[in-house]
Each structure stands twice: as structure tokens, then as C-alpha cells.
Structure prediction request, 385 residues.
Amino acid sequence: MTIPKTNLEILTINIDYTLAMNLPDFGDAQERNILYGRYVDKIFSITHSPKKLGLKNKKLSEQVEIFPTSSIKPHFFLFDALKIARVIFVNHKIDLVLTQDPFITGLVGYILKKRYGCSFLIHFHGDFWQNKYWLKEKWYNPILLLLSRFLVKKADGIRVVSSGIKDKLVKKGIDENKIRVIPVPVDLEKFRDYDQKKVERIRKEYQDRKVIINVGRKDFAKDYKTLYKTIKLVYEDYKKLAFLQIGNGDYLPGKIKADENLILNSIGKINQKELINYYYASDVYVSSSCHESFGKVLIEAMAIGLPVVATNTTGSKEIIKDGENGFLVPIGDIHALAKKILLLLNNPEKAKEMGEKGQQMVKEKFDQQKIIEQTIKFWKDLTTK
Prediction:
């Protein structure tokens, strides 16, 4: 499928202020927007940003412009976004407003639909409905849930990143015809490029131990408590071990009680090129999340052939076929996590086979170009009804 360029003008409402920053090696949000922009006339993106960052309007390409809100307080975002949007609508015929979530950005989108008559698309990048873990994270999440239930009924379209999220929406009475499952695009070609010398240096640093890796920011959903208990349990049976966590920044010796023979390393945020080297220097990827909408890091790990063990979240079930291209275990079950990790550590041939199947699966199912084309087609369908 090849989608020709359309004459659409799109307005997106986001909370990812990295879109307006000069960070070419941090994340891929800017890159995705540039790719989407190749298929439309214009993408204007309003994104929340704190005033203290001093971010300015930014052109990512001839088609893509970013407008940070520079909000004095987070709760001013709604009004700041509407103010910027008013100017954009005066000067352009916006065909579609799409929002990053079904909450405050969704509310902005709904107000713009009512004011200007444009189509309105909500993205579900998170697993919010029928999710007891998410409801417990913040005191106001139950209020956001009620808001989302109102907004999805007003949206012309809903994009979800996994079939499990779609199923939850349909069970609550949302018309399945306006929902499309479109994953987050991942540039798999990037994961072929790594620095062999750096990989060897990392391996040497870990004294040729088997390396378990986890990647994730500081977030309640990642359930690091379960992860750290699992690593301790694995080490009890497998002594030649190293554990690497990237993104969270925890002091691991204070979290995992073991002797000095267990090598622990915690690294903060790094660019993707460096992350890829660490993937190649590792043996098993493990995810302990109590909820995930998709699981992009699982795709990344599989892209380089790492075998994966993950908890049975909505997102991981979309990616892992248990026992074939990875293992799924119950959420919060440290013994089940440890058992599957040990199986891979003790059976390198099984680990290699599982990694190869995962690598093949992501090539077939998560091709970036196909996903971008599906996204553009959805935009086009919503604006030609």
C-alpha cells in the first residue's frame, strides 16, 4: 500500500514538549512528525511546555511546525492551547484535530471541533479503561476516566495502539467502526546499526556475565519493585549475572540486596544510538510492568534478536506469543518472571531461537512505513466522510 500525498492540514494537541526542543538524538517524536508531514500539506502541533523552559515556535520541516504553550502552570495548558489554536484556525483551514490522549488534550480537540466544525481524532497511547493499576496511580485519574468516557463518544475517530484497548472500548459501548488499531511506528532499520567495539567494551565491563536489561523511565506502571525482587531471585540460582537498567536512575545496590558478585548498573536517559549498543551487549530483556498500552521497548529489544520475558499486560500481549517469540507471566509474579528468565539463561539455544522468532515477527508486523501509511489513510478517511 502506498498513500499519495494529500492536501490535508492537521492540528495536533500534545503534551510532549521534546517536540519543540533541539534534541535530535533524544526520542523519535520529532522524526515521526517529519515523516507524517511528507504526506500532508501541513501539520501544526501545539504542545504543552513549562514557561521556564523558554521554548519557541519551531519548524521541523516545511510541512511541520511546533507551537509550545509556555504555560505558567500546567492547568493553564487548556487555555493556552485554545489561544494558539484560534490564531492557526484564522490563517488555515484545519481539516482534522488529533489529540494525544482522551483527557485534557482531548478536551481541547472537542472544543475546537465544536467551534470550527473540523474532524476530531483521539489517540489512546495508554491503557486507561478497566485498568485498576492506572486508577490507583494518581488521585485524579478516576476524574480523567469520566472525562474520557464523555470525549470518546464525541470523537469522529479513535486510534488505539493495541487490540486489547479496542476490546475494552467496544465492551463499554463505543462504536468499533470508529476505532482503528494502529501501533506506534518504530524505525527497525536503526537497530541494524551498532558499534561493535562499544558492544565489546560493555561486555568486558560486565566481565562476560549474562546481562539482563530493562529500559524505562521512572513510572509507577513499570513496577520496579517487582523487577528488583525478580533479579535478586534469579541471582540466587544464577551467579554469573549482571543487571542493567536504563532510564529510571535508581541506585540499584540500595534496591537489590546481593553480594558484590552481582554486577548492577543504572544509567539515566541516553540517546537511541547508545541504547542500541546496550541492547546488543545484553542477553535477556525483562519487563515487569503492571500496565502497558503497547510496549515499544519490547519491539526494540526484539528488533536486535533479544529474547524477552514480560508481564501479561494489554500491550505485551499484542507483541508476544507466549512460548514462541517470548514469555508472558502474570503481573506481579516474581517467581514466574524468575523462572522464565532462568530458563533462557540456562538454555542459550532456546534463547537464540526465541530471539530470532521475535526479530522476524517485528519485521512482519511493525514495519514503520506500513504503520505511517495506515495512519495517513485513517486521517484521510475521517476527513472525507
